[in-house]
Amino acid sequence: MKYFVMLGDGMADRPIPELSGKTPLEAAHKPTMDYIAKNGELGLTNTLFEGMPTGSDIANLCVFGYDPKKYYTGRSPIEALGLKIPLSDDDTVFRLNLVSISTEGDFEDKIMLDHSSDKITNEEAYELLDALSSAFGTDKRKMYRGVSYRHIMIWSGIDYNYTMMPPHDILGKCIRDYLPEGPYGAEVLDMMKKSYDLLMSHPVNLARMEKGLRPANCLWLWGEGTKPQLTSFTDEHNIRGTVVTAVPLITGLAYGIGLSAVEVEGATGDYYTNYKGKAEACISAFKNGDDFVFCHVEAPDECGHDGDTELKVKSIERIDEEILAPVKKFLDSLGEDYKILLLPDHPTPIEARTHVIAPVPYVIYNSDESVKSGLSYSEKDGEESGNFTPLAYTIMSRFIKEGK
Prior knowledge:
The protein is an alpha/beta fold. The chain has helices spanning 24-27, 31-38, 56-64, 68-71, 75-82, 122-136, 185-200, 203-210, 233-237, 248-256, 275-287, 299-306, 309-333, 379-384, 395-401, and strands spanning 2-8, 41-45, 91-101, 112-114, 141-147, 150-156, 218-225, 241-244, 260-262, 292-297, 338-343, 360-366, 388-389.
């Protein structure tokens, strides 16, 4: 039995007026998703929960089958694992975003314009991060390169217990009410203010502004946490597997639970990622002996954060045509049973431009087509199915164990 998980980050949404009241999933032309929904088990499930962060860290832990209330110790330590950064038990790990904030007025009155600084390139970001590291790095506080706007800072020997606000949750808002507090809040705020002065005058940002791009003019820390203690997915399910993703967070989850992860050339973590390359990587993993492959595509989530309806619809269509369809065709050609789990990790509605807590549609498709919902793949049809799994982390065990 082969197992394929197709996860479209943030695919779920709300009805959108410009789509005649349809969601992007309803509006998209996605024949393969609709086929497996019609001929599989369709339902709704919860991947996010009240009282916990509404992030892809929590949601993907759930999808992999881990109860976040038991295993979650923060987002950034998982990303650090994905970047192969060694962690100690006394490290506090932060996600360091290079963000764009407005340039008018006092620092506290600035507006969060873009959590990704116009999807800044790696080359530009690394120059800026090197400047920040020179200015603020110490023996106990170190910065590490990530991808585009996503980086890591590790601060050793502190007890940091204040929850920082994810920048993508405050797009278009004044940052005053979301600045750091607590025992180290003043030190972090001072670093943020000085980073603005440093970055606004940096040659990289001066060149970006000349091109009409937003400057990456402030460091923003969030996602704080400590070294996770995750159990082995491979031992739990007695299965060998690979994760295909462009996002360090998901790579970190893979490494943390004992799965392999592969890098795909041209995989960017946004709409312009290498969809076909990801499909080829998934097929290669199966050919190389893996029985379990998990493919994560960030594109719909980034389109949701950007409020871009057109590209969100197109990203879903490209996942269907360029990844799910060829992988399913390959699995059909093997002449053996296989299963597909299709779902988003959470909704990222165009209207909200951030993650929200709401059930997402899932499909468990078995190649023997023993279960048929007769419905298409959407939020509305997921509800119409009448199937509801309250805790998404119970799905993976059922997905695998019921196939053996």
